[in-house]
Write a structure and sequence with these properties.
Blueprint lengths: L9 H10 L9 H14 L3 E7 L3 E8 L5 E3 L5 H4 L6 E3 L12 H4 L6 E8 L5 E9 L7 H74 L5 H33 L6 E5 H18 L3 E4 L6 E5 H17 L5 E8 L3 E8 L6 H4 L22 H12 L4 E6 L3 E9 L4
Parallel strand pairs: 8-10
Antiparallel strand pairs: 1-2, 1-6, 2-3, 4-5, 5-6, 7-9, 10-11, 11-13, 12-13
């Protein structure tokens, strides 16, 4: 037996074969019909669509053979892909390449073989369409022509399926882009709605104040009073703009969350320090009950946004009170709670907190305004972490916001 040589363009040949993504796929009628027709035309009990892999030949379609593949070393087809035309072995017993081949001396007892190379449009030989008999014989010119024609149909089927897969991928990309575009359009509409409604008001007020100031129409007391009011409005607008930027970025980004190990204690202390000025202006005290070295996995930007937003809300609706933050590790979740002793909310207000359509903004204890966007964004971020947010509140008794983050995110 002579082991078939490796082709000169083996790397390119295998790359082309793998690009068709056909190896180890399920049987398909289009290929099965071609080998049946080849077997009938050539009057042979066995016919195969054989694809020559790195170390094996694998049969995409077969008639009269149980095996799904054989070693490349004993493959007739691995010899045939070195030829440009059909390779015919009239009697394997009389051919030194195959006389002691186990496929000849044992099952399936090959005596006759004829294989036409399967050639890609780029001229790469991938395997063969072959017919096999257990008796020595030959093919006439009509049978050879039919076999060559059928081999071209095999390649056309492979090409068709390749193009269909590429088309499906293109359609999937188009659909993905359409979804992104629709998402951006909805986002743009919401952003414009907020900007036109909630950001225009403080800018209009500021413009009016500057006009009066230029005309010297305000007394010193009026300037001080108006300035304080504008400061509250501009602070609220700054918070709103930050929320808008975070929300818009989250809607555009393909990377939903970027997980990393975080020291929750450090993050909370950081946020607490940045909120101190705002809290002191309203005579509020912030307490953190998070244990030292409390560690969890989360997106740092999203988690910082959620805690900062909930803490600012607590300060907004609390005067001369207390804001507390807790963290507790349970079996599958981390639970983080922010509790205040502020003015609280009635059930009607609670039911609208996380709805874009019915969102409303309640003035803070110092007249702070908002757009109701922060909590909606908090909910989105928490859901990205496999968690949820809960609220308990009662007028005059304050509010408690609790949210959980899954411990099993990867």
């Amino acid at each position: 037996m002579i082991v078939p040589q490796i082709t000169e363009n083996e790397s390119e040949r295998l790359e082309t074969l793998y690009n068709y993504d056909i190896l180890d796929t399920q049987p398909e009628k289009e290929f099965d019909d071609l080998v049946k027709l080849a077997s009938q035309i050539c009057e042979t009990p066995i016919s195969l669509v054989s694809l020559v892999d790195n170390e094996r030949q694998w049969f995409k379609a077969k008639v009269g053979l149980e095996a799904r593949q054989t070693s490349r070393d004993v493959s007739f087809c691995a010899h045939a892909i070195h030829d440009d035309q059909i390779m015919v072995v009239n009697d394997a017993w009389e051919d030194e390449r195959f006389s002691d081949n186990p496929l000849v001396t044992e099952n399936p007892n090959i005596r006759f073989y004829a294989g036409v190379p399967l050639v890609s449009p780029q001229g790469i030989k991938l395997g063969t369409l072959c017919v096999i008999d257990t008796n020595p014989r030959d093919l006439d010119e009509h049978q050879i022509f039919a076999l060559e024609t059928l081999s071209q149909q095999v390649i056309k089927q492979m090409e068709l399926k390749l193009h269909n897969r590429e088309l499906e991928k293109s359609l999937e990309k188009i659909e993905t882009q359409n979804r992104k575009l629709n998402k951006l359009n909805r986002t743009n509409g919401k952003l414009l709605s907020i900007i036109s409604h909630d950001l225009r008001s403080p800018l209009t007020s500021l413009s009016g104040f500057l006009s009066l100031f230029e005309e010297n129409s305000l007394s010193q007391d009026e300037v001080i009073k108006t300035t304080q009011g504008l400061k509250v409005m501009l602070n609220s607008s700054t918070d709103l703009l930050d929320n808008l930027l975070q929300w818009g970025a989250s809607r555009v980004s393909d990377d939903v969350i970027k997980l990393q190990s975080l020291q929750l204690t450090d993050l909370v202390n950081d946020i607490k320090a940045s909120a101190q000025v705002m809290a002191q202006e309203k005579n509020n005290t912030i307490y953190s009950h998070v244990e030292d070295n409390y560690t969890l996995r989360a997106d740092s930007v999203m988690l910082r946004f959620v805690i900062r937003n909930l803490m600012q809300n607590a300060i907004k609706f609390t005067d001369n009170g207390v804001i507390e933050i807790f963290a507790e590790e349970k079996e599958t979740y981390h639970w983080i709670t922010i509790r205040d002793s502020g003015i609280g909310m009635d059930p009607k207000k609670l039911n609208k907190l996380f709805s874009w359509e019915s969102r409303t903004s309640t003035l803070g204890t110092s007249g702070e305004k908002g757009a109701g966007l922060g909590l909606i964004l908090c909910q989105e971020f928490i859901e990205h972490h496999g968690g949820l947010i809960q609220v308990n509140s009662k007028p005059g008794w304050g509010s408690t916001f609790s949210f959980c983050l899954s411990k099993h995110l990867s």
